[in-house]
Amino acid sequence: MSSTHHEQIIREMFTTFTDFGSTPDKLLDFMTPDYRQFVDGCEMTLGDFLTHTYALRNTLHALKIDIQHVVCEDDKAATVHVARATRRSGKQSLIKVVAFYQFRKGRICLVDELTHLLKGSEKDQVLGALQ
Predict the structure, then answer these.
(1) What is the pTM of this model?
(2) Strand 92-104 with 31-39, pairing
(3) Cα-flanking dihedrals φ and ψ of residue 48, to 5°?
């Protein structure tokens, strides 16, 4: 698969992830069944990731992802992106994320990321692994 294809997968996955009108099960098209995600040291399986997605949609009014940098090589990619989370109360937080991705057969099998709260309350720091 080309680097362009992996970048497209990441962008489409984020579009689906942040579309609160879509069903989270659509995210399964982007991930392998043995998907693993590490967020600030917390490990998530594919099932945990779906739980995370539902938890965000129950907690937030909206979520926007702005990819600032993306680099792809072979079956790997990395992004620096900023997540703008809007709570139901209207309060916003900004979280900078540095993420590494690994692909297998055109799907994401691993994400390893670190988050840094740029704006928001201390409790917003856990949004990246909310269950």
Answers:
(1) 0.91
(2) unpaired
(3) -65, -40
